[in-house]
UniProtKB/TrEMBL annotation:
Coiled coil: none annotated. This is 16S rRNA (cytosine(967)-C(5))-methyltransferase. Belongs to the class I-like SAM-binding methyltransferase superfamily. RsmB/NOP family. Keywords: Cytoplasm, Methyltransferase, RNA-binding, rRNA processing, S-adenosyl-L-methionine, Transferase. The active site is at C412 (nucleophile). One of its GO terms (cellular component) is cytoplasm. It comes from Kalanchoe fedtschenkoi. One of its GO terms (biological process) is regulation of DNA-templated transcription. Signal peptide: none annotated. The keyword Ribonucleoprotein does not apply. One of its GO terms (molecular function) is RNA binding. It comes from the Eukaryota. Specifically methylates the cytosine at position 967 (m5C967) of 16S rRNA. SUPFAM superfamilies: NusB-like, S-adenosyl-L-methionine-dependent methyltransferases.
Length: 473
């Protein structure tokens, strides 16, 4: 069977299945695709018999929007589907591909405002071919009910009322986040900022590019290239090497700016952590959790060819990426990679450094706008385990600092439990360290009362990140 069909729908559906179910998703597509793990297009052709073509840039953007949005809005979409089916059990027992097709259709209608009858038509055809005619009829019935409710402005949306728990559940559905996150943020930020944070997490992420001054490529050079590519951009307000872009990443990739090592994708909030370390030519620096290398490479570009960064990571594959990127960006002469568990490092290597950065494994609660699926993968129980690991790693990292040297602890989290509280706990057990206020290294608007660096999606429209600069007596 060879059918022309909306490629974006089918590629989005396959990609979503892959993200939600990993390798097991092949079995879910009518047992047709076992063993295939390559790109979606080949997979679609082989298993469903659709004729495919290369996706255009426009198609690719739509697929990215649909996949990212359908993941972000999963809880909200499930709520609407459940309400329209009048039965949560129908939703819970629905076959995964059918549910995925419905979520895509709902997302396209409710959030993307795409032409409704085209959306119904495409998703019905997809369900008929990928599953069976009856599934197509079901999709048709449910999507048409949704359209009617939308036209009547009568979508079944939960009201934020009642006790704290009920309000948190309603907010979690309205803004499509896990309830535990809403409860945590309402407690630490207040309801108004918790809502602002969720709105940010659901918005299209913007990206920053860092010009690689280590290769003599300045921000002015980068801006010139972006102008030639007609990519809209604006210089960072905070960092000399950074430029923000909202769209146009495909053009940047196709022009080879990343593969030539001329620039990297890096959020300014992560760049500011490097400013807190303040790497200087000639210094020895240990980056304890370095891979895939965003901060190592930026630090290396500031060394001007003099000094050494020992980039340690437990993950060999990610460390390999760091090494390869360092070569591309021509900063490899000042980087030595060390594949090791930081907790066992002292036994093998007798390293000591002027500066030590611990960019600790964390919940990633500051970067949910860029990591669409992370909110569903994180569990509240993770937080306790992470804190324990952070304490262990912080103690190990502190042993690597020379007397008079600097230790920077950072995360990409906005959770006080992973940030300020970890530093306070560390200082209680390590009186040889004290806080070096970060105001000398980052703009005042990022500095907390305790002298730490903290970026916030709500306050700064950047990813959330944290860094404490500590000195050893
Ligand atoms: C937040 S990521 C680091 C990101 C990196 N600094 C960057 O800017 O690209 C945390 C890293 O810690 C590493 N890691 C976790 N446990 C570790 C351990 N016990 N020893 C060394 N590295 C560890 C992980 O493999 C992961 O690459």
């Amino acid at each position: 069977m060879v059918l022309p069909l909306c490629f974006c729908c089918i590629v989005s559906a396959v990609r979503l299945m892959r993200i939600e179910f990993g390798g097991a998703f092949a079995d879910l597509l009518n047992e047709k695709g076992k063993g295939s793990g390559d790109n979606e297009m080949g997979y679609v052709e082989r298993t469903l018999g659709f004729r495919t073509r290369d996706l255009s840039d426009l198609d690719l953007r739509l697929v990215t929007d649909v996949v990212g949005g359908t993941i972000r809005w999963r809880r909200y979409l499930n709520h609407l589907i459940g309400a329209i089916c009048h039965d949560q059990n129908t939703l819970n027992s629905m076959e995964p591909l059918l549910l995925q097709i419905l979520r895509i259709g709902f997302y396209e209608i409710v959030k993307l405002d795409m032409p409704p009858y085209a959306v119904v038509d495409e998703n019905v055809r997809l369900a008929k071919v990928a599953l069976r005619p009856g599934a197509g009829n079901m999709v048709n019935g449910i999507l048409r009910k949704l359209l009617l409710l939308k036209e009547q402005n009568a979508l079944p949306i939960p009201k934020v009322e009642g006790d704290d728990r009920t309000q948190a559940r309603a907010l979690a559905t309205l803004h499509s986040h896990p309830v535990w996150m809403v409860r945590r943020w309402t407690k630490t930020l207040g309801q108004e900022d918790a809502v602002k944070l969720m709105v940010w997490n659901n918005s299209d992420p913007s990206f920053s590019l860092r010009a690689n001054i280590g290769q003599g490529f300045t921000r002015a050079d980068l801006i010139m290239q972006l102008q030639e590519l007609k990519v809209q951009h604006e210089p960072s307000l905070y960092m000399d090497e950074f430029v923000r872009i909202k769209t146009g990443m495909q053009s940047v990739i196709q022009a080879g700016l990343l593969t030539k090592g001329l620039c990297s994708v890096q959020d300014e909030s992560a760049g500011l952590v490097v400013s807190i370390v303040d790497p200087q030519p000639g210094e020895t620096i240990i980056d304890c959790c370095a891979a895939p290398g965003g901060k190592t490479l930026f630090m290396a570009s500031r060394l001007d060819g003099q000094g050494m960064i020992f980039a340690i990571d437990i993950n060999e594959g990610r460390l390999r990426i760091l090494k390869e990127t360092a070569e591309l960006q021509k900063v490899n002469s000042v980087i030595t990679t060390v594949h090791a568990d930081l907790r066992a490092l002292q036994e093998k290597h007798k390293l000591k450094a002027d500066k030590v950065l611990l960019d600790a494994p964390c919940s990633g609660l500051g970067v949910l706008s860029k990591r669409a699926d992370l909110r569903w993968n994180r569990k509240s129980e993770d937080m306790e385990q992470l804190k324990k690991l952070q304490d262990e790693l912080l103690h190990e990292a502190s042993m690597l600092v020379k007397p008079g040297g600097v230790l920077v602890y950072s995360t990409c989290s906005i959770d006080p439990g992973e940030n300020e509280e970890r530093v306070v706990a560390f200082l209680q057990n390590h009186p040889e360290f004290s806080i070096d206020p970060a105001d000398k290294f980052a703009p005042a608007e990022f500095i907390t009362e305790q002298g730490f660096y903290a970026s916030s999606p709500v306050k700064h429209s950047l990813d959330g990140a944290f860094a404490a600069r500590l000195v050893r007596w």
